[in-house]
Design goal:
The protein is an all-alpha fold. It is built from 5 helices and no strands.
């Protein structure tokens, strides 16, 4: 589970870095919908690959557990990969990429920004030229008004673009947090199902193995018991035969002694 979640976070973090780099290349408000669609496709691909990796790691784990048994050829459970390409249902609760509210800027606002800059330039240069006994509005103050108006408009556009870039980064980060929360929940659910499957499968095999071992031990103990009884009977029979031979020898010796006495 830890490896699978780490892989998911690594993939999505790479997507965040790539998305931030694309956002900083220009104005994110231009083509924001296409950017969101492309990001959704990359997220689906990353989640699909994460599910595939989790499946193969589960199969590898099953093979490692099977290798712990002394017998060879222990079967592994059939771990089916449940439609890794169908991640739409998993990501369905995830909200779409947020809109850029700061992208809304009408012509009226731009004109007012330019007028504010122009007014400041006209007034500043006009006051300076008035000291030279020129009128407030002249070629110099008019040129300064145009230049400062364009500069104010340019600075406003630059500031708003930077604001939209920051807002776009926050939107991407919020989307990735939702994806990590939802996919991690689904991944843990799937891996717990795999865990239960492995547990039940190998517990059944271990129980059957223990039954076989117990039966073998009982058979060995019974064989040992029977074998020890037969050996004891054989030794007793041999002792009886030896005693008979000793009695015969003694009787024969006694008979020889009586013959010599005569």
């Amino acid at each position: 589970m830890a490896d699978t979640e780490h892989d998911l976070r690594h993939r999505l973090r790479s997507l965040i870095r790539d998305a931030d780099a694309d956002i900083m290349k220009g104005d994110p408000s231009k083509g924001w919908n296409d950017f969101g669609a492309d990001l959704d496709a990359k997220i689906c691909e990353a989640v699909e690959e994460n599910f595939v990796i989790a499946h193969y790691r589960s199969v590898e784990l099953a093979e490692q557990v099977a290798a712990k048994f002394p017998e060879s050829g222990i079967p592994t459970p059939d771990l089916k990969l449940d439609n890794p390409g169908d991640v739409g249902a998993v990501l369905e609760p995830v909200a779409a990429l947020d809109k850029l509210d700061s992208a809304k800027r009408g012509i009226t606002g731009q004109v007012l920004t330019a007028l504010r800059g122009s007014y400041g330039g006209l007034l500043m240069v006009g006051l300076i030229t008035s000291l030279l006994h020129m009128s407030l509005v002249n070629w110099y103050s008019g040129g300064a008004a145009i230049l400062l108006g364009l500069n104010a408009l340019w600075d406003d556009r630059k500031a708003r673009r930077q604001r939209r870039q920051s807002e776009a980064k926050v939107a991407v980060a919020r989307l990735m947090d939702d994806v990590i929360f939802q996919v991690s929940k689904e991944s843990r659910y799937r891996l717990r199902a795999v865990q239960r499957s492995l547990r039940d499968h190998f517990t059944e095999i271990a129980t059957a193995t223990l039954r076989s071992v117990d039966a073998s031990l009982r058979a060995a103990e019974e064989a040992a018991t029977v074998g020890s009884g037969a050996g004891r009977e054989a030794r007793l029979t041999e002792i009886d035969r030896a005693l008979v031979r000793l009695r015969d020898i003694r009787e024969h010796a006694d008979a020889i002694g009586e013959h010599r006495a005569y």
